[in-house]
Amino acid sequence: MKVLVVNCGSSSVKYTLFDMDGEKKIAWGLVECIGLDEAYYKRQSLKCGEKKDSVKASNHTQAVELVIKELLDKDCGSISGIDEIAVVGHRIVHGGEKFSKPVLVDKDVKDGLKECFAIAPLHNPAHYAGIEAVEKMLPGIPSVLVFDTAFHQTMPDYAYMYALPYEYYEKDHIRRYGFHGTSHNYVSQRAAELLGKPLSELKIITAHLGNGSSVTAIENGKVIDTSMGFTPLQGVVMGTRCGDIDPAIIAYLIEAYPEFKDGAAINNLLNRKSGLFGISGLSGDMRTIVKAIAAGNKRAKLEYDMLCYSIKKYISAYFGILNGADALVFTAGIGENSPTVRQKACEGLSALGIEMDVEKNKEPLNSERFISAPSSKVKIMIIPTNEELMIAREAKKVLANE
Ligand code: AMP
Fold first, then answer.
1. What are the residue numbers of the active site?
2. Would you state the pLDDT for residue 77?
3. How high is the pLDDT of residue 100?
4. Which residues pair with 45 in a beta bridge?
5. Of the candidates 301, 304, 322, which has an alpha carbon nearest to the alpha carbon of residue 159?
6. Fewest 10 Å CB contacts: which of 68, 71, 310, 384?
7. pLDDT per residue over 62-78, tens digit each?
8. Residue 85's beta-bridge partner residues?
9. Which residues of the chain register pLDDT less than 50?
10. Nearest C-alpha to atom 8 of ligand 1 is from which residue?
11. CB 195 within 8 A of CB 188
């Protein structure tokens, strides 16, 4: 059985085709810069290896058309007809309160997704365009939506509510939603498998640390709290996002600077000009920051310390609300690849039973592994995330009506 996973951004279409017998990736790639002259198509398949071409892709439909043509290509393709694709799984950033689990697409679901445009204006319209493009190019093939927010819908109300006047929750649905749910879900399931215990008996803290980062507290397979909020801006310090700040700073900036007169300008500052980039003045990419620290850059070092400290605060808080933890899992670009961030985020937490094996943590491996000291009460783990596979599994489950 083949499942196509699609992730449509505002100017990109990423995809992976899985053969679910053995959960193997057989083709994957992306069309980038949709709508621009410099649009290109980069892809890889088991048959033909890597290819990259400049392409004409004025919209999502044209981008999806390129992908389907390539998948059907007689030399490099991976399928001989579209009917070989059993189901398409779409990654959707925001499902609001409407969607707490993956769903098969129909008209009501599409209308529901449209209702979430207002709370995810950067992502959901692009996802919608992607769904319509897939419907056009793959007529008759079912689509399943898998939401980044859905895994977090188990949070109790006292964790997801903001202490604003209640009417803004009722009218505008302002509350904590949480993001990266597919990743937190995947790594917590893998952690349970690696620990050899049912997820329903475990307390796990998962730290998805990438360009965007979030930490989640999971008890018996259910999210109790997560660091991202109404949008993916809240929580730990990130590449170009500020994470937690005093909200009064926004009112101050609006009063003090004429350029911050509207929401778009403030959003740009907080989402694109802050975080690692904002403090270092160099880059939002951790690898650049690490090089700058080695070259003696003090602001890069400050930002790095801030980022690690903010992760440590969430780990400690979630250890508290869970009343202990069986495992702490690191995942995503920084979580999987930066031993120094992992070490610093766990430093001084021995009182919580979090003790790292510093040597194991440094091993340059790209695989699932334990990095806690034998004496550590909490098992510290690295688990490479696999959101695409999780989406493929969920799509397959929905199709089978499981
Ligand atoms: P992601 O959003 O999961 O793709 O993660 C991207 C982040 O991971 C960027 O900040 C990268 O700089 C960071 N990253 C990737 N590889 C490494 C590495 N070897 N050391 C430190 N950071 C890394």
1. 148
2. 93
3. 93
4. 27, 49
5. 322
6. 384
7. 999 999 999 999 999 99
8. 2
9. none
10. 333
11. no
Instruction: Kindly give the number of the ligand 1 atom that is closest to the alpha carbon of 211.
Output: 2
Q: The CATH number of 2-147 is which of 3.30.465.10, 3.40.190.10, 3.40.228.10, 3.30.420.40?
A: 3.30.420.40
Task: Report CA(283)–ligand 1 centroid distance (Å).
Answer: 12
The domain made up of 197-387 has a fold known as: Nucleotidyltransferase; domain 5 (3.30.420)
CB 207 within 8 A of CB 315: yes
pTM of the model: 0.94
8 A C-beta contact, residue 131 and residue 105: yes
Give the pLDDT confidence score for residue 122 in this predicted structure: 77
- Residue 188 dihedral angles phi and psi, to the nearest 5°: -70, -40
pLDDT given for residue 120 in this prediction: 82
The pLDDT assigned to 119 comes to: 84
Domain-wise residue ranges, the chain = 2-147, 197-387
- Residue from 179, 180, 286, 290 to probe ligand 1 pocket by mutation (most atoms less than 8 Å from CB): 286
pLDDT at residue 10, rounded to an integer: 83
pLDDT tens profile 240-258: 999 999 999 999 999 999 9
* CA 187 to centroid of ligand 1, rounded, Å: 17
Helix, strand, or coil (residue 250): helix
- Testing ligand 1's pocket by substitution, the residue of 337, 362, 383 carrying the most ligand atoms inside 8 A of its CB is 337
Of the candidates 234, 111, 241, 91, the one whose C-alpha atom is nearest the C-alpha of residue 151 is: 91
Q: Who lines ligand 1 at CB under 6 A?
A: 210-211, 239, 285-287, 290, 332-334, 337-338
Question: Ligand 1 atom 12: the closest Cα is on which residue?
Answer: 286
pLDDT digits 0-9 by tens, 341-390: 999 999 999 999 999 999 999 998 889 999 999 999 999 999 999 999 99
Q: What angle do CA 345, 350, 355 make, to 5 degrees?
A: 70
Which of 1, 10, 286, 265 has the alpha carbon at shortest distance from 126?
10
Q: Do domains 2-147 and 197-387 have the same CATH topology?
A: yes
* Two structure tokens written together for 179: 């993001």
Could you give the angle at the alpha carbon of 323 between the alpha carbons of 319 and 328, nearest 5°? Answer: 35
